[in-house]
Design brief:
Distance between the termini: 41 Å
CATH architecture: Alpha-Beta Barrel
Structural class: alpha/beta
Order of helices and strands: EHEHEHEHEHHEHEHEHHHH
Strand content: 5-15%
CATH superfamily: Aldolase class I
Radius of gyration: 18 Å
Helix content: 40-55%
Number of domains: 1
Number of strands: 8
């Protein structure tokens, strides 16, 4: 598989008002992303509300996205669990249904030690599909520090990391050590930002792109930002970054994906409500988000 670079959308899962998955809406969103020039798609992550999806719903969503994409961009399917056995099952399902890679989050709640983490990711890689580590301590309770990421990057089949630590120093260390060491061995190891607002800093440090939440609504703009960075045009990248920055902030005014689903609904895209235990956006947050979206020139309904 070619190295993962550019802008990848952490896709929402659209819901109907009764809480059922809107499969035709999901199909529409996939095609919207492709038409807008996104570099890759990441379904069944946190933004896709995977923790509240049933297995049959997840399987149908994977089949739809593979069917619609037809190999035009990479599909990285969320396959994480705090049970290694379950994670392996989800990773095998992603492989069997035609995904290009699996996104495997740090086991949450368990707070595994280093030896446990290594064995967890070895088990993921053994499935035989490229694996991207997802490091997000704010949700899992366990950061994967740069030295351990470097150690994990040596496992054949581990091809990158979605870095959501929020720590630019850690990101730089991972790019220098894990990605740098693998490149010296003629192996790719992709470092993708998991925070929209840190896309430009990560790319300036030598990273490869972003798995974005806001690109659910503005995929073309996020793709343009990453392409400007990757081509070395940081003057243009800064302009795009600052134009998007109010939305980067507003999209996380409450727990993701509540704000982005609200913004997409206002813009006429299929999104619907988030499933419980996530509730609707509060009035104060709605005002902040509406102002940020309107500032992008998007007509709201």
């Amino acid at each position: 598989m070619a190295q993962l670079k550019g802008a990848y959308t952490a896709l929402i899962t659209p819901m109907k008002e009764n809480g059922d998955v809107d499969y035709e809406g999901f199909r529409r969103l996939v095609n919207f992303q492709l038409e807008e020039g996104i570099d890759g798609l990441v379904p069944l992550g946190t933004t896709g509300e995977a923790p509240t999806l049933e297995e049959d719903e997840e399987e149908r969503l994977i089949k739809i996205i593979v069917e619609e994409v037809r190999g035009r961009v990479p599909i990285i399917v969320g396959a994480g669990s705090n049970s290694t056995k379950s994670m392996v099952s989800y990773t095998k399902r992603a492989k069997d249904l035609g995904a290009d890679a699996a996104l495997v989050v740090t086991p949450y709640y368990n707070k595994p030690n280093d030896s446990g983490l290594i064995r967890h990711f070895e088990a993921a890689a053994a499935v035989g599909i490229p694996v991207v580590i997802y490091n997000i301590a704010s949700r899992t309770g366990r950061n994967i520090p740069a030295p351990l990421v470097e150690r994990l990057s040596r496992i054949p089949g581990i091809v990158g990391v979605k870095e959501s630590s929020g720590d630019v120093n850690q990101m730089g260390d991972i790019i220098r050590d894990a990605a740098g060491q693998r490149r010296a061995e003629d192996r790719d190891f992709t470092v993708l930002s998991g925070d929209d607002a840190l896309t430009l800093p990560l790319l300036a440090l030598g990273g490869d792109g972003v798995i974005s939440v806001v690109s659910n609504l503005v995929p073309g703009k996020v793709a343009a930002l990453t392409r400007a960075c990757l081509s070395g045009n940081f003057e243009e990248a800064r302009k795009l970054h600052y134009a998007l920055l109010p939305f980067f902030k507003a999209a996380f005014v409450e727990t993701n994906p509540v704000p982005i689903k609200a913004a997409m609904t206002w813009a006429g895209l299929p999104a619907g409500p988030a499933r419980l235990p996530l509730g609707p956006l509060s009035g104060n947050s709605e005002a902040v988000l509406r102002a940020a979206v309107a500032g992008l020139g998007i007509k709201l309904i």
